[in-house]
Amino acid sequence: MNFHHQRLVFHSRKEDWKKDIYIAKKIGIIEDDYGNTIVQYEKPQPYKMNVQPISSSPDIAEFGENASLIQKAVIDYDEFINEFKEFDVAYLEGITPEGEEVHGANANFRLYPPRNQNKCIILYFERLVQGKSMQSLPQD
What's the rounded mean pLDDT across residues 66-90? Predict the structure, then answer.
């Protein structure tokens, strides 16, 4: 198989690597009657992205002992510029927002600040530790 043929095969299978995910955008914080802060999210929207656990040495060095909790997606700059922001939440690994009464309740990852590059955007997703409520996420 020559290089040109390999490249065609690679690009034809690239779409197969994309997974169905949902992302709910953070819209604000409110306080309930008891003084507890509650993070509010928009209705989760579906996306198709190639999301993978981090594996490069620089990524592992950056996230250290949390590296096993991080996943990464490289997405198109022109299509997604200003689409996502820090503290939005994501539904990865087959988790969906189906049946949730409050937007963001089923989310299992949160976004780090998107890193805008020249032609792409890098999204890092951190797994939400089980038992950690959505209300305890860091505030802006």
Answer: 95
